[in-house]
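Appendix C reproduces, verbatim, an entry submitted by the partner laboratory led by Prof. M.T., so that reviewers can inspect both the input and the predicted structure.
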Amino acid sequence: MTSIYEFKTRTLSGKETDLSAYRGKVLVIVNTASQCGLTPQYADLQKLYEQYHAQGLEILGFPCNQFGGQEPGSNEEVAEFCQVNYGVTFPMFEKIDVNGPEAHPLYRYLKQQAPLEGSEDNGIQWNFTKFVVDREGRVVKRFEPGVQPMEMESEIRRLL
């Protein structure tokens, strides 16, 4: 794959989605978990979405259970948790693997395009690793889990 727009995935409700639907948008792609110390990042991700969605920002959440089993629920449970606890309205997708032999092809691509400095495999280190993609579909920046979503705001504004 040579473009972010060539990937397909499924929403939490099981609907197949072609990422080309997001062509021309600035994207934040993030692996999420509901039972993680970083889970409160959902609140600021939602805040960014509300603030910049009309200008072309999309946040795409990908639940993952690979880190400490912190996303054990079904897709339906994930959807309910995100809505009830954080009022999430940005698109959320089916649970996926982000590392290892079963890693979703999208995440293989993201890691290749924005390698982790000092890492041989560019692996995702934990929940809430965030990738920013420009309007042309290029992965421009990788933010590690400890970076709070609001710390990405200047980068998002620059791309919008």
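Residues 27 and 149 are 13 Å apart (CA to CA). Additional entries are available on request from the coordinating office.
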